[in-house]
Design goal:
The protein is α/β, with parallel strands linked by helices and 286 residues long. 31% of the residues lie in helices and 28% in strands. Bound molecules: 1-{4-[(3-aminopropyl)amino]butyl}guanidine.
Amino acid sequence: MSNAAKHEWVTEGLHAHYAQRLRVDEMLYDSNTEHQRLKVFQNGQFGRILTLDDVVQTTEGDNFIYHEMLTHVPILAHGNAKRVLIIGGGDGGMAREALRHTPVEHVTMVEIDAGVVDFSKEYLPMLSDGAFDDPRLNLVINDGALFMKENTEKFDVIIVDSTDPIGPGEVLFTDTFYGHAARSLTEDGIIVTQNGVPFMQGDELTGTLRAFQALFADASCYLATVPTYAGGPMAFGWGSHSDKARNVSLADLEERFAAAGIETGYYNPEVHKAAFALPNYVKKLF
Ligand code: AG3
């Protein structure tokens, strides 16, 4: 028997013609929540891994890249963000990074699946790293699309930390949802979205950015490579009613980042600016 065959593996079933396999050193949790099949397992390369319907959501080892890039990029580009909204993000990693900014007064996090929050607290405490106990966090268990539709508050930064558009996350990729998000942003507010790996899932980015082009004066995307979101860099959608934030200077970012005093594993102002440089195969998608 080969070495590989001796072990249990989780095969990710996200793409039709390509799959990645992660070795299960120990299955820590495997059950159906109200909305989806949730697994948490230990892997020698990435540490603890959370999958929903067998799609990798986050890992102990590489989540810093994704969470830092979806928080520090919009928050530091904005320069004075006080009110942040996270749609999804039940594992708490996004709240963790957003709350590192002391001038952020309030983070509202709207997660559809209470099961994800409960299990992440128990099996992935390093993901939230205390964020759930921060008095600035307001955790709402609700459908993000419904919340957005009824919301009357304005936010400086909206972060859509969704799954891919299959299952409960699908409504977070619709024009209707983005329309409600656009009117929930302040004048110089910014929305950022997870848009999958464009080499593998180009439609995901195209769909979001076509909607953003109709709703925002500034619509674009930026990139970062997250090892467990296989297939090349992942795209993050960017929409704002003004192009001020995207055109922030490197000098301003350096000043803001130094003032924030945040320790990061991936983000720095140079990476921030460079992330908006797009290869042609990505530019062609919107
Ligand atoms: N949500 C993003 C999952 C994207 C997976 N997509 C993919 N592999 N192409 C992550 C939630 C972390 N807070």
